[in-house]
């Protein structure tokens, strides 16, 4: 099979996944990220990379995001939000963060394939991406390995949230570029 054929299969899967997502949690998350003080993101592995990409774009639109675990990340407070990216919703380190955020009174959001997970049970906002988790690699939900479909759909979701914020704030790429790194 040619590489472009695989790419078309991936695009078809992404399109279907986005079409069947429920907007309820997405709308709650879109509203929450604009009303809280600081925004914290966390995730492990490739899910964590998608969360970092989201944090970068939130900074570009003028929000106040932080990546949990970075040396310059401040403390979480009650008027903040923690957004966890976790396919399984069961990653122990992320569950521990979720429990701590709830004890501190912060808003907790989860982007996941598993809306009945331990983290989802704690979350104020859950966004389900109906894709295969990495442990379901042979389930037939995706032609892609492990959690690739989830991670790709998550990046599209996060970029869509950024477009919404841009629209609401009247921003375009030129205005955002002023916040782009300039010491490169």
UniProtKB/TrEMBL annotation:
<dbReference type="GO" id="GO:1901135">
    <property type="term" value="P:carbohydrate derivative metabolic process"/>
</dbReference>
<dbReference type="InterPro" id="IPR001347">
    <property type="entry name" value="SIS_dom"/>
</dbReference>
<protein>
    <submittedName>
        <fullName>6-phospho-3-hexuloisomerase</fullName>
        <ecNumber>5.3.1.27</ecNumber>
    </submittedName>
</protein>
<feature type="domain" description="SIS">
    <location>
        <begin position="29"/>
        <end position="171"/>
    </location>
</feature>
<comment type="similarity">
    <text>Belongs to the SIS family. PHI subfamily.</text>
</comment>
<dbReference type="Pfam" id="PF01380">
    <property type="entry name" value="SIS"/>
</dbReference>
<dbReference type="InterPro" id="IPR017552">
    <property type="entry name" value="PHI/rmpB"/>
</dbReference>
<dbReference type="GO" id="GO:0097367">
    <property type="term" value="F:carbohydrate derivative binding"/>
</dbReference>
<dbReference type="GO" id="GO:0043800">
    <property type="term" value="F:6-phospho-3-hexuloisomerase activity"/>
</dbReference>
<dbReference type="InterPro" id="IPR046348">
    <property type="entry name" value="SIS_dom_sf"/>
</dbReference>
<keyword id="KW-0413">Isomerase</keyword>
């Amino acid at each position: 099979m040619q590489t472009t054929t695989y790419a078309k299969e991936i695009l078809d899967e992404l399109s279907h996944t986005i079409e069947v997502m429920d907007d309820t949690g997405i709308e709650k998350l879109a509203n929450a990220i604009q009303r809280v003080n600081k925004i914290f993101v966390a995730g492990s592995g490739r899910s964590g990379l998608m969360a970092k990409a989201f944090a970068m774009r939130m900074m570009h639109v003028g929000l106040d995001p932080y990546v949990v675990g970075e040396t310059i990340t401040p403390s979480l407070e009650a008027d903040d939000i923690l957004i966890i990216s976790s396919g399984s919703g069961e990653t122990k380190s992320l569950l521990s963060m979720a429990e701590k955020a709830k004890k501190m009174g912060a808003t907790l959001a989860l982007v996941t394939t598993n809306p009945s997970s331990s983290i989802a049970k704690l979350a104020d906002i859950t966004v389900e991406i109906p894709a295969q988790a990495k442990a379901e690699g042979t389930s037939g939900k995706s032609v892609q390995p492990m959690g690739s479909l989830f991670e790709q759909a998550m990046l599209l979701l996060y970029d869509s949230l950024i477009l919404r914020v841009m629209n609401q704030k009247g921003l375009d790429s030129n205005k955002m570029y002023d916040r782009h790194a300039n010491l490169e």
